[in-house]
Amino acid sequence: MAHDPSAWAPRERGTVPTAVAVALPSDVAIRRFAERDHNVVRWTEFDRGGNFLSLEQPELLVADVREFFADLG
Predict the structure, then answer these.
(1) What pLDDT shows up at residue 50?
(2) Tens digits of residue pLDDT in 31-48
(3) Residues β-bridged to residue 13
(4) Residue 73: which H helix or E strand, with range?
(5) Are residues 43 and 64 in contact, defined by beta-carbon separation less than 8 angstroms?
(6) d(Cα 23, Cα 28) in Å, to the nearest integer?
């Protein structure tokens, strides 16, 4: 797939509502690029957690996922 030139071609911006959860101590995410390519409706930055956020801070992640879907209606 890395040799397929169409894999690198610009794509249309996604329309599916998207949530991003970032654990600041370990994750690096560039919001500008995420919002350029996806319909980001929720962006959450946690002050704790790490690469395995669902294992390290499950209550934070579950609460965020619940709020995301509640906001969608």
Answers:
(1) 85
(2) 888 999 999 999 999 998
(3) none
(4) none
(5) no
(6) 8
Strand-pairing partners, residue 68, are none
Q: Angle at CA 59, nearest 5°, toward 55 and 62? A: 90
With left for phi above 0 and alpha for psi between -120 and 50, is residue 59 left, alpha or beta? alpha
Q: From the CB of residue 57, how many other CB atoms can be counted at a distance below 10 Å?
A: 19
For tokens 């654990």, name the residue.
Answer: 23
Rounded to whole angstroms, how far apart are CA atoms 67 and 10? 32
Q: Is the dihedral of CA 37, 43, 44, 45 positive or negative?
A: positive
Torsion of CA 43, 22, 17, 60, to 10 degrees: -90
Match 């992640």 to its residue by tokens. 61
pTM here is 0.79
CA distance 20 to 34: 9
